[in-house]
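Structure in, sequence out. Go:
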């Protein structure tokens, strides 16, 4: 499955990317992680702190799948607003899920601060604006829900938005607690750190499951074999056949990265920006003076077949940026189309396979994939060691 096409930005930001051998022997392990993207890297990092033999296997190279097309926005707010989650899940579960996502952003900051190399993690506010006046009541409901449950949020009217930005919108919420990151640097640093702590890493190794007994699940690759006591699938959108059974779809989305600017006037604290309209447009800045923008999602699983389609959406995204910041002198330096998965209920798929012992999944379907991967790594660690986690029910596969 092609996960992205076009000219990616993140791989250009890291020199001397670490490389790992193919699996070419017969091994056994306590935990096998299948997939070397964000979810796999965070699971490997989390488990590297414990006395287990952990192995991670990636069929391409580390971080080269969907994660390299990740735009690096870390938000605790979901594509589904808190008040909408409350209607669907009930107040207790909905609020707890939002709290878990905020905790996950804090956890990501701590991990980033402990890594030996910088991964461009920066805390940011988020501006979530009403795309039209009709969306104002929706934002007001969300402001009430966030305020009631003690999330830091400010309601901005049209005048306040105009004062801090070079565009006009009817209303917005300014939330605190979000962040940005370079996902490619982060994944490669996580994997390198886990490797130094004893996690065995293999690239260019595609695994196929052979069989299972009460003690092990058995896999083979072209040149090797693995017997694993427990298995975590962190295969992202390539696990769509499985995820569809529980309610998920894979669509396609577009992203661009601009040329550099010396500064970003009329952009309050370089906050993350997104909107209520669906599909939504979003944008952020980078630490080297660029703007990343994305969105314009399409309900099509296959990626755009030719460069002209990517070019068309590149122009549309550039136009959207200039509508917000007309005085910025910008060109597009990178652009791509990528697969994007989301669940029907807005929650990720994390937990034990409902019909198989010792098989776990960490699938961060949704706009907050990195945040979901972080909370997933913590939940799975508890399930592996203690067979339970107080929050596992919210994101279980057969909910």
């Amino acid at each position: 499955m092609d996960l992205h096409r076009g000219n990616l930005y993140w791989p250009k930001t890291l020199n001397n990317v670490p490389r790992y051998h193919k699996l070419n022997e017969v091994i056994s392990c306590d935990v096998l992680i299948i997939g070397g993207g964000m979810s796999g890297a965070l699971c490997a990092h989390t488990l590297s702190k414990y006395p287990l033999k952990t192995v991670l296997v990636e069929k391409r190279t580390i971080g080269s799948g969907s994660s390299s097309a990740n735009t690096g926005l870390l938000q605790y707010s979901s594509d589904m607003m808190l008040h909408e989650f409350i209607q669907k899940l009930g107040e207790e579960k909905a609020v707890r899920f939002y709290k878990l996502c905020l905790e996950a952003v804090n956890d990501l900051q701590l991990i980033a601060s402990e890594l030996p190399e910088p991964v461009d993690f920066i805390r940011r506010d988020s501006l979530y604006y009403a795309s039209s006046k009709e969306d104002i009541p929706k934002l007001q409901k969300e402001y009430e829900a966030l305020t009631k449950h003690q999330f830091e949020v400010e309601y901005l009217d049209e005048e306040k938005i105009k004062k801090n930005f070079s565009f006009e919108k009817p209303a917005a919420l300014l939330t605190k607690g979000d962040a940005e990151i370079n996902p490619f640097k982060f994944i490669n640093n996580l994997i390198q750190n886990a490797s130094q702590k004893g996690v065995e890493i293999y690239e260019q190794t595609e695994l196929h499951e052979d069989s299972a007994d009460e003690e092990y699940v058995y896999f083979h690759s072209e040149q090797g074999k693995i017997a694993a006591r427990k298995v975590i699938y962190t295969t992202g959108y390539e696990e769509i056949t499985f995820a569809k059974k529980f309610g998920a779809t894979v669509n396609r989305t577009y992203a661009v990265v601009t040329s550099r600017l010396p500064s970003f006037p009329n952009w309050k604290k370089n906050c993350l920006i997104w909107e209520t309209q669906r599909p939504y447009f979003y944008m952020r800045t980078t630490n080297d003076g660029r703007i990343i923008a994305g969105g314009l999602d399409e309900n099509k699983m296959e990626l755009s077949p030719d460069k002209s389609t990517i070019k068309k959406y590149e122009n549309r995204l550039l136009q959207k940026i200039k509508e917000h910041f007309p005085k910025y002198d910008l060109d597009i330096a990178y652009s791509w189309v990528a697969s994007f998965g989301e669940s029907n209920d807005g929650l990720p798929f994390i937990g034990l396979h409902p019909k198989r012992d010792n098989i776990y999944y960490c699938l961060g379907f949704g706009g907050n994939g990195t945040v979901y991967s972080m909370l997933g790594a913590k939940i799975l660690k508890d399930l592996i060691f203690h067979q339970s986690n107080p929050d596992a029910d919210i994101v279980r596969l057969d909910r």
